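From the pipeline queue, job 12 of 40. The input is one protein chain; the requested action is below.

Action: predict structure.
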Amino acid sequence: MARLRDEYNNRIRKELMKEYGYKNIMEVPTLKKIVINVGAGASIAESEALEDIVQMVTLIAGQKPVVNKARKAVSAFKVREGMDIGVSVILRGNRMWEFFDKVINIVFPRTKDFRGLDVSAFDGSGNYSVGIEDQTVFPEIDANNIRKVRSLQFTIVTNAKDDKSGKALLDKFGFPFKKDVNRG
């Protein structure tokens, strides 16, 4: 079982129940899934870009991603309907907890000039989105073997009812939010 899942089950869930007055253990917010997305717009000009992106996401996530296709044509971006425009993967269970642990304890500390994450990236339903500009901060990526530095985005999906309870959940894990006295 993943380390952070054990910590959640043994400590964090009880603390959240006590602090926020949840009556039922099922009311306590938890992580449901993590969705990782990478745009592959470079694949229009470079044929091997999509293969590189799929390989990168497979290494980072531990499972093979799905290639997303354009639903409609956008001439301004030279995109035609049906073109490969990105890859995504949904992590659940132990892979999700292990990825979450890796992001908090390895990726963010390795990020250059990291000053914390903005609280405003919550979506109103307790889910939090993060963008990482350089994939080489992940320990699985060898900086000597990459052709181009790429960015990726991931969304932490919780079952929290609002942003306040979603932030409280992530705070208990030591999620590195910016310290701002004016925000919750």
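Job complete. Residues 49-87+131-144 form one domain.
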